[in-house]
Amino acid sequence: MFVLQLGLIGLCIALLPLSWVWVKADDNKFRKLVWVTTFLTLDLVMFGGFTRLTDSGLGCPDWPGCYGTSSPFVAHAQIAAAHLAMPTGPVSMTKAWIEMIHRYFAMAIGVLIVAQMVIAWAARIRRRSLSVSPWWPTALFGLIVVQGIFGAWTVTMKLQPIIVTTHLMLGLALLGSLGWLAARLTPLPAYEPDAGRWRAAALAGLALLIAQIALGGWVSTNYAVLACTDFPTCNGAWIPPMDFQHGFHLWRALGMDGNGDVITQDALVAIHWTHRTFAFVVVAYLVWLAAMLRRYESLRRPANGVLLVVVIQFVTGLSNIVLQWPLPVAVAHNGGAAILLLLLVMLNFRIACSRPGRAVVPARDAAPA
């Protein structure tokens, strides 16, 4: 019964953006729905970072509900008892609400993707073009199902770092895929033949960013942000004592090494130092790439966005160390990574389409009247 209640909550939340899309004066409501879903998925990724950074991942230590109910209101007695037994533990009413709000919005995103899938297949059956295959939203639905499975494992496996990091990367994969679909449905700027020669360089930039985000997720899920408390050195040394073997042992419990012992400070330093050092490589490459791509009119706006967000990421990353990991800055750093991913996806799409015969002009809305 409570699973049905959870589904109804997700549906009710999704009805708000669905209604807004429907009443807006736009001749391509499917495109608007995709863009709205992309924006809300970005918000969900940021709120997922907030959930992790506030230690709310086990605010409700079961899944998909909260102590077998659909709401912390109903589970108030169980939450109060758990908090009384362990006041500094992972369960409190505030953390339970943070965790459940994250789950509610994840379900709402699922509903929006189901709506895209239904509209796309209905258009295919009625032979009305959406300028995109219905397999796109179908693949997105499959991706969000896998994401939900890892969300469940995040809770049931007690925040195991590799599971939490994979959950984060799948969320960003969903965001990037939605961004690519939204770009396909949006008219492209004027064709610029020379931009196509930057295809490999742009893909390399995206690959570097994905690797850096994965390293950042590994830092966050292992709580290694404060393993180095100074900058530019790490604990007073350019190359401090580090334990890479245990720091990057993937399959292990939170706070433990591969042997089941408490993870050492040297292992946490190895995690932090690797992310910090690789950041210089990524920042230098993306600044160079964006500076080169600014010469093209069709790529100037996303390239400028990359330059701006890279600077913000560097500042927020440094502030996390100097200011001892303040929550707003940490959330902004997570959100900046997601925005940077979207911008690079947009750049890669425009470059991929910068050759004759690849201009994408969306058809009029094929949604049922």
From TrEMBL:
One Pfam family cited in the UniProt record for this chain: COX15-CtaA
Entry's transmembrane regions: 6-23, 35-53, 101-123, 135-156, 162-186, 198-219, 273-293, 305-325, 331-349
UniProt membrane topology term: Multi-pass membrane protein
GO biological process, one term: heme A biosynthetic process
Gene Ontology molecular-function annotations: metal ion binding; oxidoreductase activity
A cellular-component GO term for this protein: membrane
Name the UniProt record assigns to this protein: Cytochrome c oxidase assembly protein subunit 15
Record pathway: Porphyrin-containing compound metabolism
UniProt keyword terms in alphabetical order: Cell membrane, Disulfide bond, Heme biosynthesis, Iron, Membrane, Metal-binding, Oxidoreductase, Transmembrane, Transmembrane helix
Cell compartment(s), UniProt: Membrane
